[in-house]
Amino acid sequence: MAFLDRYQSLVTRHEAALSLTRIGDEDPGRFPADEVWADFVRLYETGLHPAIALCVMHRGRLVMNRTIGHLLNHPEDDDVGDIATPDTLFSLFSASKIVTAMVVHALIEDGVFSLDERMVDTLPELASRGKEAIRLRHLLNHTAGIPDMPRDLDVEEAIAVGKVDFRLLEELRPSHAPGTNVAYHPMTSWICIQEMVERKTGRDLRAHLRERFLDPMGIDHLSYGVSEPDMDLVARHAVTGLPVPTFMGKIFERTIGADLDRAIELSNTAPFLTGLLPSANVIGSPLEMTRFMQMLLDGGRVNGMRLLSAESVHRATTEVTPAQFDSTFGFPMRYGLGTMMGGNRFSLFGLGTRGAYGHLGLSAVVVYADPRRKLAVSFLNTGKTMAAPGMVQWAWCVQRIINAASRAR
Question: What is the pTM of this model?
Fold first, then answer.
């Protein structure tokens, strides 16, 4: 009897989860969309994510565009808010870096920047303590050696004003000779890139992104932050899972300037949702981000328009730091010039994805393109966890997409 009661409880819970699924326009063809989605429903049932979105383009066709969950809080809460839909807007967190990197590569293509130019030629106040050797390529591929935020930085104030006082960055001293070792830079190098763009062009990243990519693509929302009227369209985030391991908490505090709980709290505030944070607050719908990745997969072209040269896309998405021990993450990583790169035995995009490129976002957001499988993916979610048994299901979901694309030839 106890077994039957438990079984009935699981069935009821599964049916309740399925009722929260929303499906947008899609044309699966031979892609096993329903089979793949069943694994994502099981991920939702772990309770790690208030909302999950999956958008997949395979061979240029939109084969999946689905969401499950709520915009606010956690499914166990009484006030769970509206049901997420494919039109819901999601924060990409660190996956924002791939968008920022493409703006930089567009400016390189236009002759505004050179990969080998020194950071301090545009930001002379940082010319001290070994930072003189940092070049733009080092800022893009996480080898600049300055991954940690200044000790005296007030993160809340920086988010509120959208800027960091560069006098605080003067104290940073590279942990190694720039260009020699890999250490993921969650914020510092991207703050420098943001300032370099504004000083050299007189315009901010948001304006360049809109003009170069978004307007030609007909994209409404994908940008740094949203307008105040659109804030209610953005899914909010929640810390879930087990307590953050001590060593991971220290990484957060050192490289971001706040612990996970505080960082997520700030991510749900108006300054974050409407600001311009080049490494963290690109916000858009799952389809918008997938179309951006498909544009890269198509060599910088959309509907016959060339937005970025094939050479620029190749430069941005080619591995430049073969697998090395990343001293921020503590495990091997591969990087391009603004991208995280796939691998065959260890990869954020699934096994057997050498040549794929994209980016991870806090803490389980992942966007990528896989040229070999002609696949563009946005897997977005709102639960922020560093440790939980349910992450095994997350990893399986990532692999499930790869397996399905390999079969649907």
Answer: 0.95
